[in-house]
Amino acid sequence: MGRVDETPAVGGVVPSTPASEAGLSFDEFYHAHYRSLTVQLAAYSGDLGQAQDLVQEAFCRAFARWSRICRYDDPLAWVRRVAWNLATSRWRRLRTAQLFLARQREEHAPGPSPDRVALTAALAGLPANQRRAVVLHYLADLTVPEVARQEGVPEGTVKSWLHRARAALAAQLTEKQGGAA
Question: What predicted TM-score, i.e. pTM, was given to this entire model?
């Protein structure tokens, strides 16, 4: 009886003997070489589970073509090459995916400053028409006539809203600054 890590000879055939010379069936070929290929791919990839998957896939591809592959001088070389190519392809796909994910990561912006929080809270305390007038005039850079046209009101009404809004914002912001000091 051999060591645990040795591949047992199947049907009296030494595993290193080419399958065409020994007349191995696919099952015998698989059992003779699966373990050694898995060890090779595990050493290459650093992941036993991945190596098992890659070798299994290579053998599946060999099985689909076994009537042709069994006539090769060294069918094991074909399976080994397929397994290594699969490992390289998987590594490239993983690298591409990681690069893509690295470019897609959200960048964290710093939180709003205390002044911005106070201004947002003060704007929220304004009546809706005054808040719209302030946002359109100061943030969207619309003129008073443009705000009046958008809101469907006379220019004097927009001026009144802006005046009241500025007074209310000044009172709220001054009050908050005075209470914080």
Answer: 0.47
